[in-house]
Amino acid sequence: MESVVMYTLREGVDRSRVLETYPRHKAYYEAFRAAGGGLVALGPFQDGDQAAGSMGIFTSREDAERFIAHDPFVTEGLADPRILEWNAVHFD
Q1: In sequence order, what DSSP letters do the residues of 9-51 get, joined into one string?
Q2: What is the pTM of this model?
Q3: Dihedral sign for Cα atoms in the order 63, 51, 79, 26
Q4: Taking CA 36 as the corner, what is the angle to CA 28 and CA 54, rounded to the nearest 5 degrees?
Q5: Of 28, 67, 69, 80, whose CB count within 10 A is highest?
Q6: DSSP at 57
Q7: In this predicted model, what pLDDT tens digit does every residue of 6-59 receive, in sequence order?
Q8: Cα–Cα nearest to 78, from 21, 39, 34
């Protein structure tokens, strides 16, 4: 079963801090995936609401937990993650 991590920006987080942290976040997710971490996809919502946050899709809850444990957006206090189990139907 896949897992989805929903990120919500913490109250009062300035967009400039998100942009400043993004390069560390990007380096982290690229390294996580290159090391075999089960990261399927991730990214921000594009609805214009800064508080809407973002989400990531992982192949397992364990990979989702491993990822958020060291994600700069979480460790630097910018976002609160929430893991949801996802029983996805794939149309390959």
Answers
A1: EPTT--HHHHHHHHHHHHHHHHHHHHTT--EEEEEE--SS-GG
A2: 0.90
A3: positive
A4: 45
A5: 67
A6: E
A7: 999 999 998 899 999 999 999 999 999 999 999 999 999 887 666 678 999 999
A8: 21
